[in-house]
Amino acid sequence: MSTRTDTSLYLPTSRDEMLRLGWEQPDIILFSGDAYVDHPSFGAAVIGRVLQSKGYKVAIVPQPNWRDDLRDFKKLGRPRLFFGVSPGAMDSMVNHYTAARRLRHDDAYTPGGRHGARPDYPSIVYTEILKRLYPDVPVVVGGIEASLRRVSHYDYWEDKLRPSILTSAPMDMLIYGMGERSVVEIADRLNSGERIEDITDVPQTAYIVSKPDIKENEIVLNSFEDCTRDKRKQAENFKSVEIESNRMQGHRMWQQTGSQWVCINPMYPPMTTEEMDASFDLPYTRYPHPRYKNKVIPAYEMIRHSVNLHRGCFGGCAFCTISAHQGKFIASRSKESIIREVKQVTQMDDFKGYISDLGGPSANMYKMGGYDKTKCAKCVRPSCLHPAVCPNLNNNHSDLLDIYDTVDSLPGVKKSFVGSGVRYDLAMAAGKSAETNAINRKYIENLISRHVSGRLKVAPEHTSDEVLNVMRKPSFDLFRQFKQIFDSVNHRNNLKQQLIPYFISSHPGCREVDMAELAVITKGLDFHLEQVQDFTPTPMTLATEIYFSGIHPYTGEHLYTARTEAEKQKQREFFFWYNPDAKREIVESLRRIHRPDLIRALYPGGVSRDGYNGASDTKRLYHGSRKNNTNRHDRNMNSNQKSNHKSKRTK
């Protein structure tokens, strides 16, 4: 029997599979909102394998049916220690709804991409069901949904402030961030006879008490009720939470909601290389469970031949959730562990010789951090790259180059690609030595000439320095420089590769005119944009707090944000200036904001009088002469000199 089809090699998902393993009762049962893919990129598989490695019997129930007689919640019985709830690799609301709050018709983490296999807020729904069926069994909730909702947070889909998710369902404990260490400690202490209500000091956990025990130096956040009355207090809370998420050694935090208090323990220090290796070296089959025979799981198809090198991101982008979940300090695997996994990939029955991604949250932060770790321990900057690259940051890319070269030399590997987002500003930033600068130039050339699968995706996000400053992203001028390097390397190597930039509309601080200028600038660079998105507020990001409160939590200033669908549509349509169907609206918008110069720049051939759609081009309202054009757009084009900073987008 092959690895792909032998159920004994996976965590059991049914009573029959348990009995074949000789189990009467599992120690821990995990309920997951995702399909069960036994791969280190899927959180439930990681938690299950880590617990298994510590000697625990772990079963998993993927995507249980919560609408019927609840047989999926009953089929494995009660666990000896606790239920674990992992709602999925994506926040369920991002998974279910578009930026326009419209229902999506697919789900990449479900077999066949089928929509509807999980509820909204599975952390809440699964917990309520489990507690109703097994009121005396502890329920521990983890994953991205729990991480982002551990304190009061703005919920875009309900358009209101919600309290900590701990107060919304009878969960006994919440684990935030990457949960391997927390969940093992909880299991060990329950296994030794401790009660769940007495386990209050595990890092990266949160729980509810009726009477707080607040000690000196601990942080008391504004109460949920105060935040609902005064949005500025919610903005203040966000600043405190983000700072603590980015500390190497944080403080315990408290928030009151009614008569209850949420207690949030600080994060663990970053995982060591040995701890990272121990997690990634577990016996994953790297395949979906055999129960999904002949069914395609889209999210798995994207990462099946990829290898993750590290965790964490010190970019600190305003719209990104990575720091709230993984923190800003980089935890890297050893070269040996990475090579072991690559060799495992080459043995997969569908491997054709191509590693699809050697990456991470940001592809090129492997083994990077501060020269002086004592400075990092005191630092509370949310970003090591904005407003300027930290002088203490070691951005030497030599370790990455070594990984790339070693992987490409392995038998069976024809080529390795970098599919994760690359921080070109990090690679282009001046290092502390001429040697580092030379290595980084070599990295950029190596990346472009040898590790691009036809299209290199990068994320300038916008063209306006003012908007980019709010985003914590660098000036667009840096992207221009990178594009010149990209084009030059392609020319020298006889390559015909594409540079694919990501952009965001309706981000806090972005006005209609900024999007109009973005359209003109990207047209001038010969881009017809395709990787674009409208800003979607997700819990626990700087941009979301600005969207909700109208206030920048760090400066206290009021910032404009497009909030209505009409305002957002006006911004979004500028991405598609080249679409004849968008032309009428764009021209009318530019007239309304008194920018005929931008009409001429976008449509130098003129605008037809009879409908703007090119039905007639005999008579023109505007003529496209660009001679002596000294308008605001050209001044911006010629003087983008400010040095201003990414996310995942929710990957």
Instruction: Report the sheet-strand fraction.
Output: 5-15%
Instruction: Name the average pLDDT.
Output: 92
> What order do the strands of the largest sheet run in, or round the barrel if closed?
2-1-3-4-7-8-11-10-9
- CATH topology category name of the largest domain: Rossmann fold
Radius of gyration based on Cα positions: 26 Å
CATH superfamily of the largest domain: Cobalamin-binding domain
User: Helical percent range?
Assistant: 25-40%
CATH architecture of the largest domain: 3-Layer(aba) Sandwich
The main β sheet shows up as: 9 strands, mixed
- Unreliably modeled segments: 610-651
Termini separation: 34 Å
- Which CATH C-level class of the largest domain is it? Alpha Beta
Secondary-structure-derived class? alpha/beta
Counted up, domains total 3
Total beta strand runs: 22
Number of separate helices: 25
**Basic shape:** globular
Throw out a few tags for this protein:
Transcription Regulator spoIIAA; disordered C terminus; nine-stranded mixed beta sheet; three-stranded parallel beta sheet; alpha/beta; Rossmann fold; 22 strands; 651 residues
